[in-house]
Amino acid sequence: MAAYNTISSFTRAFLPRASRLSRPRCAPPASCPIRSQSPRYLSCTVARRTENTDEERKWSTPLAKQLADAIMITGPIPLASYMRMCLTGDIGGYYTGLIEEGRDQFGLKGDFVTSPEISQIFGELVGIWFVTEWLSQGKPKKGVELMELGPGRGTLMDDVLRTIQNFKDFAQSIETIYMVEASPTLREAQKALLCGPDAPMTESKNGYHSVSKYGNIPIVWTESVRSVPDDPNNMPLIVAHEFFDALPIHAFESVKVASQPKSAPTGTPTSTPESSPSRSTAPATNDKDSGPTFEWREFVVSPTPPDATHASLNIPKSEQQDPIPDFQLTLSAAPTNHSRYLPESSPRYRALKHTPGSVIEVCPDATMYAADIAARIGGTPDRPRPRPAGAALILDYGPADTIPVNSLRGIQRHRRVNPLSAPGLVDVSADVDFTAIAESATKVSEGVEVHGPVEQAVFLSQMGIRERAEMLTRAPGVSEERAADIGRSWRRLVDRGPGGMGKVYKAMAILPEKDGKRRPVGFGGSI
Ligand code: SAH
Question: Where is this region: Disordered (predicted)?
């Protein structure tokens, strides 16, 4: 292989001057919101008894009623349980429920737009990134697995697969493509795009199967990463774009509490200030009051009181034309099971415990996914590998090195809405804690190292987005209008201003451990 001093010259040499076939395109940027914009601050009222004796109460969706009924029995539920039900619950979940006819989650007709839907170049560059990792890791002739977590419409994988047809040896090394997708409807959409609308899909105990229209590579769909087989001799190449932001979060706030004698009664997660005004489970050092201690309390979800108003719920002005949300976030009056152990799981959280008012968001599913990815690439004592191999690219929005705070947001039909309204119809997401992902990956496997996060603008620029866009623009037969569209689209992906995606979105890589000596492309390295 010739030497390429920049990834752009590599990209230019291998990619054709062709655009992908037409697909529904996004409207002018401003009308298609991206999920990372203007995180919402949720003001939190103190939990109050919200027994709903009014049988006439109208819930905005069937899922809202189901949640409210459950809360009546169990008491307020953790934010993570609410998010999970809203996004992937069996009944009416945003991704897993039956979406209204003629509408999907993405693009102009849906709720929000993502980078692969904005520009084909995004997926092309992810494909090139995979190729560069394969080249750097000894170009195995077989045993390569592509895996995507949360593939949406399948657009990103389609662009990856089309692109890697230009790298025959790499394309031939791919044994299987795994798509981890919770939504049956999106699984069908992905199959139609990647395999053809008429291609058969079969079901086995391992998942759903079809064959890619590019190179007849087998594609397997599973609902969780745990169901993807882990062959220690294979090279997994994994991408997750806007997947981690859809994983449920827990939120906690540190509070100062007066120490209680040992005999103090134990509070329950569902107790409210009215029912137990000064209850605490803070461990006491002796039977006398020994001064204040600090505890984490969990934000929990309960129905809004029947007499709630926009003002009493502190709803921002921009959302005051919307109906009162069905649910509200309140701070649990006593520790919960989760507040006792999750904030103790990292020194980053523990350092904040003694500063009352500190808020943290913790995503155990992200930790689990990061650990699984790291185990596949680097091996663990339980899942040994002959040697580390593979790579994972995580692209999402969130702060580079701080713990996310008050980042829960809701989007519906291109608008910010209250995330606790219309459960199942509103997309709910939260900032990704990249440092927590890095911590989890390196803790579980000594065979991996983590690069980044770097801003999306940096990653895509180093991958050659400008040069690729110029190539597409100059291709024969490209109209002025199309050229302008290509220009607008790629610039939006790297725009570091408030409406752009270059700064808030980040890229992180999990790679085989090399003592930090080999930087991957897009993260300061070259091939
Ligand atoms: N990557 C795509 C889609 C992002 S939306 C894009 O950038 O356009 C989130 C995707 O993750 C959807 O496909 C959704 O169905 C899937 N998803 C969300 N939560 C999931 C979970 N817990 N397990 C598996 N898939 C999930």
Answer: 257-323
